[in-house]
Amino acid sequence: MLHNRRITCSVVTSLYRVARRPYALQVAPSISCLNCLTLFRLASRRTRHDKKAVFDDKTPILGGVPIVFPHFADWEEKPFHGFARVCRWLVEKPPSKTENGDVRAVLKLMDTAWTRQFWDYTFSLTLEVVLGQNHLVTDISVHNPSPKQSFAFDLLLHTYFLLPDVTKCEISGFKGCSYVDKTQNFQEFTQNTDVITVRKYTDNIYKDTAETHVISNASGGKSIKLVKSNYPDTVVWNPWADTVKNFPDLDESEYPHFFCVEAGNVAKPVLLAPGKTFKASQVLHVIDK
């Protein structure tokens, strides 16, 4: 099934570009990452059927779960959000059924001459993805194989969610958190309520958030529970009409129907000592009413 054991992992698991073709993990004929109950938008909000999606092995896909590594946001003249989301990843273990009927795959990314021109460190990233009937697990580990040299990095899962109406959705888990509002010159504020909404251009970095967020009124009126481990921060983003034109492959009609809720380590970089491994996890669950 895999014609090429290297894939572009700009979308974590849900949509694979293998041999220049989309490839989906599949649990059953009616349930796959290509729709994932139509809730997670993890197969992707961006497919070849989308109006302006770009699949050229160079442009990051605005959809799915892009991996942001080793740098978040602007990076001088280097790739925005780092290079991991546009690199070719090795398929270490192709998709296979587990004993309980889930589907599991393992991908790997290591440093190359191309990555070292931006970030001169040896590293390996291992991504394990498990897709079930009502959940999606994304485990990632960052290993420093150097015997002498430490390095610092940002890591974030830029998860996109499909929504019928973004203005009617709520996200819980933010009470008391300080946050940086990038739309207001990076001013810092405190979130007084547990629940937030997205009804305008939003680009906020929330620090030390709860381990669990619940997204209400997703597709089908259902909710999605996001459980994160070793990701202290949560970024919430929607370009709104204000900045949607800055994304050539994002149609202006799309912003009312998605937002990004992004688990990560971005407020403070992770420092990884020689020979050590950092691990983090995100689990998405469909909550049936």
UniProtKB/TrEMBL annotation:
Its EC number is 5.1.3.15. Pathway: Carbohydrate metabolism; galactose metabolism. It catalyses: alpha-D-galactose = beta-D-galactose; alpha-D-glucose 6-phosphate = beta-D-glucose 6-phosphate. Gene3D superfamilies: 2.70.98.10. The keyword Lyase does not apply. GO terms for molecular function: aldose 1-epimerase activity; carbohydrate binding; glucose-6-phosphate 1-epimerase activity. Keywords: Isomerase. This is glucose-6-phosphate 1-epimerase.
